[in-house]
Every structure is written in structure tokens, then in C-alpha cells.
Amino acid sequence: MLGCLSLWLGSISSHAEETGTKTVKAGFFKMRGYHVMDEEGIRSGYGYEFLTKVSKYSGLDFHYVGYDKSWTEMLEMLDRGEIDILTYAVKNEARQKKYAFSKKPIGTNFSVLKVKEDNTEIQAGNYDTYNGMRVGMVQVSTRAHEFDKFARKHGFSYQAVYYDTADEMRAALQEG
Known about the structure:
Layout: E1 2-6, H1 9-19, E2 23-27, E3 36-37, E4 43-44, H2 46-58, E5 61-65, H3 71-80, E6 85-90, H4 93-98, E7 100-101, E8 133-138, H5 143-154, E9 158-163, H6 166-175
Parallel strand pairs: 2-5, 8-9
Antiparallel strand pairs: 1-6, 1-7, 3-4
């Protein structure tokens, strides 16, 4: 499940009332379909729409920062206090020790294994054809552990190739 990595919204709201400000710095990193900004600076995407709804019901004004930053840089900004809230973090034991999460998830998360259209060697559901394949993964993703469990369950080995961003990973697939 996808969680909202943040300070508790209730404590932000209370702090806003005490200080007279309702501005919250939200991490807004480029991610197709989730955080999008067009050439004119118009924002859209699931994460943006989610925070827009939160704003509507909480009275908080989100100031979006970091569109040019990677997911790793966003986490570093959260650690340094440069942003107050960051969505799209999968809740895990290590992160729960460091950050507060919303009580309820804001969505679901899943992994998709994609191959180039002309690749006829790897056949969906035929796990023998998966054996030894190279699999692109985003460096800081928590999904690698789940994929490893999937591979062990279905009896195939693979070589993980790590990328800093999903865009870099997609580009490598197209080039390869």
C-alpha cells in the first residue's frame, strides 16, 4: 500500500493555527501520472489532486517545491526540513522509525514487468523464460525486495540493474 509520508496533518494544521500561517511545503517531484507540470506551470496528477483535496478540507495551503529533484533528493529535503510533506512513500519498517505516516493509505502500488515489444524470448507467465533476464529497478524503491520474493516463488534468477529515476529506467529499456 502506498502511504503518505509526512508530518501528521493534524499537527501541521494545529501549528498553522498557532503561527497564523497555513502554508505547508510539499515535495512535488516529476513522476508521470502522479506529479505532472506542463510548460505553463500547470500542475496535475494523482498526487497533486490528492493534496488539492486535503487542502480543501484542512484549510492548508500547499506550496509545491522540488519538481526538478529526484525521489532521493526529495527524501533528503524532508530530512533537512526543507519540505513538510512528501507523498508516494511506501510504508516500511525503516521509514516508520524515521517518519510519521498517515493512518490510511492514499492509494495502492504495484510493479509491472515490461519488455520491448519485439522481445519474443520472455513470455508472460512462462517463468522459465525469465531466468537470467536483466531487470531495471529504481535505486531507492522498496519494490526490489518484493520482486525478489516473486522471482524466488516462481523459480527464476535475474540481474538487477539500478537507475536513479523511473524515466532513466524507461529510456534504458527503449535503448537496450
